[in-house]
Design goal:
Two copies of one chain form a homodimer. Chain A is of the alpha+beta class. The first copy, chain A, has eight helices and ten strands. Chain A starts with 7 loop residues before the first helix and ends with a helix. Chains A, B: Pfam families: tRNA_int_endo, tRNA_int_endo_N.
Chain lengths: ~240, ~240
Amino acid sequence: MAPRWKGKAAEAKALAEPMSTIVSRLQSSLIESNSQGLLSGCSVLLAAHPEQTELFNHACFGRPIISAEKDKQWFQLSLEEALYLCSVMKCIKVVGENKCEKNDEELWRYMTSKKVGFPFLFKAYSHLRMKNWVVRAGTQYGVDFVAYRHHPALVHSEYAVLVLSDEDDNKNTRLKAWSDFHCTLRLCGSVAKTLLILHISKNGDGAIFPSSLENYCVEERIVTRWNPEQSRENQTIVQKESCKS
Amino acid sequence: MAPRWKGKAAEAKALAEPMSTIVSRLQSSLIESNSQGLLSGCSVLLAAHPEQTELFNHACFGRPIISAEKDKQWFQLSLEEALYLCSVMKCIKVVGENKCEKNDEELWRYMTSKKVGFPFLFKAYSHLRMKNWVVRAGTQYGVDFVAYRHHPALVHSEYAVLVLSDEDDNKNTRLKAWSDFHCTLRLCGSVAKTLLILHISKNGDGAIFPSSLENYCVEERIVTRWNPEQSRENQTIVQKESCKS
């Protein structure tokens, strides 16, 4: 399925300014301002000055929080987003309630305890982000994430992403029954997304975060309906096309 | 959600001829002709004379098979349909490959071995059929069955039915993850069906089929989205309505 741009102008705008450039600019800005996020339950709160606010919105990290403060904008980052900015992009620090900075390992332990299947979800998130996909929550489509080629204002999301793992936790009950498979595929089709399954397996043990992340291996699978009409041998297709013309 | 009739005439036609009447007529006709179904893998084949063919189609049992035979029409019954006609309606006999008639217990053992979760699926099927719902396969919607108020030509299916059980088999992996729940609900909403969950538990043991069926207890649950606008206190609704008028 080809990317569904929101108009010709949107496609031109996206090509002129790749997502990697926008994310790099956000990274530099956050490093420069020595930004600190505040752990708060299942999210991390971070204050941005006006220029950063624009970069956050363009790079599609977090959700802006409406408040009365005029000189700074607060953003609510998901656990995956915060850990990615902190440990992979190395552009923010995260502090706990006691204002003490948390190191990578402490963050990892905290987040793993807060969210079922977090190691796999984070691996999936960072896997896609590193390839410059914009990754957002997929809750409304019954999947873990949705992936956009560029900013959601310019293009519709292309992939509905399900994260599966070998480990025996709640995350692991998806797609085991045929009815679930059909249901997911039909829903993806009706919202014009391709189902992308990231199957994540853990090899080796003992290493601590973030180097432990390299032990997680990602296998990408796309599931689409098999359409007999579109899957005939080349000759038939040529014949059909020549009939049309 | 109100039933979605396929036009005013369809509704009138359905009211004039209740499904229970049509099914009774099929039952009498099958008993009279001493009908025999033939076990064949995961279905049962049954020949019908022209008048029966119409009754089969109206009562919505089985699928007609296209063949060159003119005087009789073959129908392919699902395992649930065949066992229902045989053991509950007691209007057909079922024979195996050796042309020997199978008794209820033999049929039950055969079908249970052919289809994962069959006892629960059959209990759900007969539960709904006995209440005069027309029950068809729900594969295309990622559920076990769909239920119609009357013939599918007259009305759209109202319920997407998922059968859940306490037993630890493949059927039992549905709706365990939130993402699956969201996915199923969103799909049901998009095809204007209500999600009906039949939770079936087995109490007691030892009895043989068909009396063992009484050991299965069915709990009906409907799952719908909670819409705050529609769930306010009465007073507010009255106020809103009076504003409109």
